[in-house]
Amino acid sequence: MITAVVLAALATACAVGSWRFTTAAWTSRAPRLAIIVWQSLGVAWGLATTGAMLAYAVQPYGMGVLPGLTAFIQGERPAQAWDALHVLALIAGLTSLTVLVAVLLTAGVQALRARRRHRMLLALIARDDPGVPGVRVLDHPGAAAYCVPGLRSQVVVSEGALKLLSEDELAAVLAHEAAHVRERHDLVLLPFAALRRAMPWSKVVADAQAQVELLIEMAADDRARRYCSPRRLATALLRFGTAGAMPTPHGMLGMHAQNVMARVDRLIKPGPELATPVRYAYIALSVSLVTSTPFLWVFQL
Known about the structure:
This protein is mainly alpha-helical and 301 residues long. It contains eleven helices and five strands. It folds into two domains: 1-82 and 274-301, no CATH class; 102-270, no CATH class.
């Protein structure tokens, strides 16, 4: 019973923490750290919520969640009699866990299919350009720049973007897209997109997804400005914002014109770095969340 109570308390804390974290002011100063915290909150919330129900369900076995489920699957008789509440908790817990796993797998499969179809399409309609080696060019007047992530990643720009941007601005945009590919931001977004599918009614989940989408753009901006002028990346963002950039295809990561002014301000007038002790505190919090929840699944308190 103690395990179920602790997991329920942890799930509540993660839900409240996620709600408060959507308004945190420091995240733009350390987007990579904020992404790690978001991932930790999401993983811990999912495991703690389902774990609390399953821990209560297998309480008659006197074991942890995983050993209790193993005993149930093997048909062992519990030490105490089952009642309707334990059966209901088992059904709810297994259903929740199945839904979370199913939406994650579905989102992943759909993204992989979309990227495979898009690679086939690019093979037909895109071309190489000696002026931008290693980049696929679309003959389209609209402004577009995006990457197709994966093992065979590609960076794509449109003819309209080539005409819109100066040489330095184009280099900044390509560095931004290369950052998305290198840091596998598609994998960062995947669980949040899956959670949104599972809970489309939740404002906290919607806000979390929007926050992470913005944070990965800021993280890509930060990596890009290591290789190019921040002002050139800022002017490229403004050009995309005013030109009405083409929507990014499903499953890809693109040069979004979201929150342009906030991103431009970060590039032109970077704020103070997050204090090192605060960084360590959030890292410690993330490690604690990710390690403690699986521990509570295995051992009985």
